Amino acid sequence: MAARHISVRFGYWTVLLISLTLLGIVGVSYVKDYRRSRALDDELLALRQEVSTLQTRHVELSELIKYFDSEGYAESRARLELGLAKPGEKVIVVPSNTPIPEASPVGGAQGAAPWRSWWSYFFSRQRAAP
């Protein structure tokens, strides 16, 4: 009988070991699937954000295309680049190479430092009352 009792005990340990091994395999498989699922969820979120950004950009570009196809854009380009005008309007051309005249000092001593002119303006006793 002693031999039978040992074989039964050996069977329980074998079943326990096999059960724990199977539980470990299932656990590892579950963790791998969970990680893969999280990675796919993150990728899906990033792709949805990219789609949203691209849709916004698409709307902006569609509006820009509408503007470029409009009569107002063609008119403004004709006015600015070609110098054209509507009937009854007059075009004025301002030369861009015209020298700008130097400003001459107003009041104060000529050739004096600018701070002296301001000092005498604010703190001079001979200044007339406003």
Descriptive keywords:
0% strand; elongated; 130 residues; mainly alpha; single chain; 3 helices
Structure description:
- The chain is mainly α.
- The chain has helices at 2-68, 71-82, 114-123.
- The protein has three helices and no strands.
- Shape, principal axes of CA atoms: elongated
User: In what range is the share of β-strand residues?
Assistant: under 5%
Number of strands: 0
Q: Determine the N-to-C terminus distance.
A: 130 Å
Rg from alpha-carbon coordinates = 44 Å
Main sheet attributes: strand count, strand direction, barrel closure: none
Give the overall pLDDT as a whole number: 83
Class per helix and strand makeup = mainly alpha
Structure annotation, total helices = 3
Task: Report the uncertain regions.
Answer: none
Strand/helix succession: HHH
The portion of residues assigned to helices is 55-70%
Task: Describe the structure concisely.
The chain has 130 residues and is mainly α. It contains three helices and no strands.
Topology summary:
Blueprint: H1 2-68, H2 71-82, H3 114-123
